[in-house]
Amino acid sequence: MSFSFKQSGLATCMNVTNSGFHKRLISTICSRSSFSPCLNLQNPERRNLSVSKPLHISSIEKINEKKTVFECKAYEADKSQPIEVEMKSEAAKRLKIGIYFATWWALNVVFNIYNKKVLNAYPYPWLTSTLSLACGSLMMLISWATRIAETPKTDFEFWKTLFPVAVAHTIGHVAATVSMSKVAVSFTHIIKSGEPAFSVLVSRFLLGEAFPPSVYLSLVPIIGGCALAAVTELNFNMTGFMGAMISNFAFVLRNIFSKKGMKGKSVSGMNYYACLSLLSLLILTPFAVAVEGPQMWAAGWQKALSEIGPQFVWWVAAQSIFYHLYNQVSYMSLDEISPLTFSVGNTMKRISVIVSSIIIFHTPVQPINALGAAIAILGTFLYSQAKA
After folding, report:
1. CA dist., res. 354 & res. 109, Å (int)
2. How many CA atoms, within 13 angstroms, populate the side-chain half-sphere of residue 274?
3. DSSP 64
4. By three-state DSSP, how is residue 16 classified?
5. Contact 339, 185 (CB under 8 A)
6. Which of 31-45, 157-171, 205-219 has the highest mean pLDDT?
7. Which of 65, 77, 85, 219 lies 20 to 30 Å from 109 when distance is taken between CA atoms?
8. Could you read off the pLDDT of 153-188 as tens digits, one per residue?
9. In whole numbers, what is the pLDDT of the chain averaged over residues?
10. What 3-state class would DSSP assign to 5?
11. Residues ≥6 apart with Cβ < 8 Å to 294
12. Bond into 123 cis (ω within 30)
């Protein structure tokens, strides 16, 4: 048999020379082993056993009844592989998050462009919002039916806790669409960059949550920048402004309800948003019919087709599909990252939307208006850092 000794990476030097331990080691090996004869380590030339780290038996191999071999190995060689694997997994995770962020921003930009095109030709934000939710719900139902996506395991308690989240999501979605139907996309997103201010105020006065002074100070550039951008907006509209403000308030409530209601639930981010879309669609549909109605929709549809042509149908389909996809990817990102990282990503998303919409729609921007937007977005970034 052969004994394999390994060195412990946590021990200090040990010198075994003419010691009682040497004899006890030999007797222990002999007494606990079933082989014979016992190892003869009494040779004076080999009585000094000095190693930089203690040894222990790691394995016994049966070779020959009359032959035994001691094999010494170090732990350090065995431990090198897990560290390398851990580094590779961390790099893969960062790459995955980077792909999520890039996809999220790109899909959001495309959605806002097509959404604005549809609203310019077809100014019915309630129906447009309903179609966005309906398209996403249909996509997920097909995915579940064909086993492309795993069907979520839900119960009555799940839908009960999801209901207030869906109400807030519905209000925020419609309000943002109403805002973009009245003002430029860039202006809506400048005002929506003030969402952190609503988050702090709601958490402070409704939930009694306290924040450090740095968080309150970060709200000054957010509020000031949004106010400066609103005052200098060339195409200011009160309905558009109020829609963005209501959307901020509603989405803050949605986030609060989400944290409370989804605690301990095992539904993935993708399926969570799918369930949220289904419930929001059921809530929104009767209100959309009451506010606008099928007659207005039919008349507006004919007018848009006559002015734009068949490509208008593609615009409607694109804005509906991309709305669901960008929200789905954002919830998938939230599964992988911290809320702070998500907030920073959301801030960068607004910058990409504002810049791209100004370029595509040739939105006139005064220097003072651009300064207000930059201050508001900088304040949002500072808020993310202070909240940490």
Report:
1. 9
2. 20
3. B
4. strand
5. no
6. 157-171
7. 219
8. 888 888 988 999 999 999 999 999 999 999 999 999
9. 78
10. strand
11. none
12. no
Q: What tokens were used for 329? A: 């990817």
**204 is written with which tokens?**
């402070």
Distance CA 227, CA 222 (A): 9
Cβ atoms of 327 and 269 within 8 Å: the answer is no
269-291 helix and 125-145 helix, angle to the nearest 10 degrees: 140
Contact of 326 with 176, CB cutoff 8 Å: no
Q: At 39, is the pLDDT very low, low, confident or very high (cuts 50, 70, 90)?
A: very low
- The residue that leads in pLDDT, 322 or 47, is 322
Q: Which residue has the tokens 């350090």?
A: 76
Q: What is the spatial distance between Cα 233 and Cα 366, in angstroms, rounded to a whole number? A: 8
Nearest to 170 by CA among 272, 251, 104, 271: 251
Rounded Cα distance, 210 and 208, in Å: 6
Per-residue confidence at 93, pLDDT binned at 50, 70, 90? confident
- Which residue in this structure is represented by tokens 């921003």? 105
- DSSP codes, 19-62: -HHHHHHHHHHHHH---SSPP----GGG-EEEESS-EEEEEEE-
Cβ contact 330:125 at 8 Å: no
Q: Would you place residue 384 in the very low, low, confident or very high pLDDT band (cuts 50, 70, 90)?
A: confident
358 compared with 45, residue with greater pLDDT? 358
User: HEC string of 314-337?
Assistant: HHHHHHHHHHHHHHHHHHHHHHHC
CB burial of 258-295 (b: ≥16 within 10 Å; e: otherwise) equals beebeeeeebebbbbbbbbbbbbbeebeeebeeebeee
Cα angle for residues 123, 129, 130 (degrees, 5° grid): 115
Give mean pLDDT, residues 80-86: 59
Measured distance CA(263)–CA(37) in Å, rounded: 65
Q: Kindly state the percentage of the chain with pLDDT values over 70.
A: 72
